[in-house]
């Protein structure tokens, strides 16, 4: 009998609880600080932006938090997502390694992002909120929140980073199909956007700027809240359904990963897959190596400083301790728009500081080459963000080949690239180049980090 290619859970086997890694960490996270007082923030400080149910999840240290049945009902549209054994990729690489990937591109929006968009829209609707504002890079989060807003009757406005707004018109069309309004950022709609455009009329935008615009609008209206697609604790919590399912599926495959990888920008899909496996190890189980894969052009984990910084460019957000390139840093316009964020999730950064994970960075062209190799072997065209995870997995498989080790590799294929074919066209034409950041701009951004008393 041949070894199965895919491992499928029934809807009845979908996790009923999210996993909170904070319950198992040997040391608590550094406090989130109010930028005015430099004191730990209170729930009241966050109330203008988030409903109380989300704030409670943000600060919770409970190991398990129940997934509401109304959320699980929507999740059944695509969850549980499949786990695949990459037999054909293994053969193409000639590796003794076993390669598995959890495929999140089966969601209606084509990525892992609805795993948090659906609960965020649900909790806001429960609280009587009528409108949500948000930012998006590549558009995977924006389209996911647009879909979630339509399901729960919320108006959604998305500020999309200008370079991605121009690069990915079909992602914008998807948001509009779901009923959202999509605005190129920096925009003339906000005070901060107008300020940026006055200084730099052709500014390519950044996630930090788009966050500032979305937060500014949300803070002005009683009926409006802000929704974030990555970085914060509650977003990472929602994504752990990925890893919880994967653990069950790996057991179905009678295998356990030696290495777990995912791409990292803000940290949501990485944490979603990796945190349940890290927690398993912290509670005495087998602990795999955990590897975060980031872009060389925006390397917050491998080049950033672990320090308190703002989550946005206008400095409207609280201060969190994270690996950061500086809130004023603008990454170059490479195609993995979802990875163009100046900082890493504070919880991921904390896990990194505890020595529970590794990080590597790869260039854009090498990642696209890996994505093409994967597509030709497995048939799925990855998103540019997911190409980083594919590259990391291939490098681990080739290491196993050199060392003659039959290790088991698990990575998160966080989304498909059907809206990113222009980037693939550029790759095949030889027009896709490796982007590099300006060392002087990085040094300047890091020199401007806020001063926080020890």
UniProtKB/TrEMBL annotation:
GO-annotated cellular components: cytoplasm
Domain called Tryptophan synthase beta chain-like PALP: residue spans: 76-415
Reported cofactor(s): pyridoxal 5'-phosphate
Sequence positions bearing N6-(pyridoxal phosphate)lysine: 113
GO MF, one example: tryptophan synthase activity
Gene3D superfamilies: 3.40.50.1100
InterPro entries named in the record: Trp_synth_b-like (IPR006316), Trp_synth_b_CS (IPR006653), Trp_synth_beta/beta-like (IPR023026), TrpB-like_PALP (IPR001926), TrpB-like_PALP_sf (IPR036052)
Protein's pathway: Amino-acid biosynthesis; L-tryptophan biosynthesis; L-tryptophan from chorismate: step 5/5
Catalytic activity, as annotated: (1S,2R)-1-C-(indol-3-yl)glycerol 3-phosphate + L-serine = D-glyceraldehyde 3-phosphate + L-tryptophan + H2O
Keywords tagged on the record: Amino-acid biosynthesis, Aromatic amino acid biosynthesis, Lyase, Pyridoxal phosphate, Tryptophan biosynthesis
Stated role: The beta subunit is responsible for the synthesis of L-tryptophan from indole and L-serine.
Family: Belongs to the TrpB family.
The protein's name: Tryptophan synthase beta chain
Naturally occurring in which organism (per UniProt): Ottowia oryzae
């Amino acid at each position: 009998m041949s070894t199965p290619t895919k491992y499928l859970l029934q809807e009845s086997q979908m996790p009923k609880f999210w996993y909170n890694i904070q319950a198992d960490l040997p040391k608590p996270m550094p406090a989130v600080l109010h930028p005015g007082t430099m004191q730990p923030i209170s729930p009241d400080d966050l109330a203008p932006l988030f409903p109380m149910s989300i704030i409670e999840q943000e600060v919770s240290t409970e190991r398990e938090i129940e997934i509401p049945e109304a959320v699980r009902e929507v999740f059944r549209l695509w969850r549980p997502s499949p786990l695949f054994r990459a037999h054909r990729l293994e053969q193409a690489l000639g590796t003794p390694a076993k390669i598995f990937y959890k495929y999140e591109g089966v969601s209606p929006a084509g990525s892992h992002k609805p795993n948090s968009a659906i609960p965020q829209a649900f909790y806001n609707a429960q609280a009587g909120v009528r409108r949500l504002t948000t930012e998006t890079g590549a558009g995977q989060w924006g389209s996911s929140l647009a879909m979630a807003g339509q399901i729960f009757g919320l108006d959604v406005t998305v500020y999309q980073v200008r370079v991605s707004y121009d690069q990915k018109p079909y992602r914008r069309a998807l948001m509009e199909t779901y009923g959202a309004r999509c605005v190129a950022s920096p925009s003339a709609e906000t005070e901060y956007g107008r300020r940026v455009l006055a200084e730099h009329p052709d500014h390519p935008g950044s996630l930090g700027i788009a966050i500032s615009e979305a937060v500014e609008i949300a803070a002005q209206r009683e009926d409006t809240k802000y929704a974030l697609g990555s970085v914060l604790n509650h977003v990472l919590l929602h994504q752990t359904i990925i890893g919880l399912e994967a653990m069950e599926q790996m057991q179905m495959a009678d295998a356990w990963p030696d290495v777990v990888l995912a791409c990292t920008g803000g940290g949501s899909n990485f944490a979603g897959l990796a945190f349940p496996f890290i927690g398993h190890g912290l509670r005495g189980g087998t602990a795999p190596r955990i590897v975060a894969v980031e872009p060389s052009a925006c390397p917050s984990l491998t080049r950033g400083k672990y320090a308190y910084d703002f989550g946005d460019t206008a400095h409207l957000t609280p201060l969190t301790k994270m690996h950061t390139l500086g809130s004023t840093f603008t990454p170059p316009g490479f195609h993995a728009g979802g990875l163009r964020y100046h900082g890493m999730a504070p919880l991921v950064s904390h896990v990194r500081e505890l020595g529970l994970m590794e990080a590597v960075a790869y260039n854009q062209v090498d990642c696209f080459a890996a994505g093409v190799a994967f597509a030709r072997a497995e048939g799925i065209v990855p998103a540019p963000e997911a190409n980083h995870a594919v590259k990391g997995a291939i490098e681990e498989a080739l290491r196993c080949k050199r060392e003659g080790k039959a290790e088991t590799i698990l990575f998160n294929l966080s989304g498909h690239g059907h809206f990113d074919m222009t980037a693939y066209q550029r790759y095949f034409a030889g027009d896709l180049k490796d982007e590099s950041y300006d060392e002087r701009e990085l040094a300047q951004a890091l020199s401007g980090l806020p001063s926080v008393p020890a």
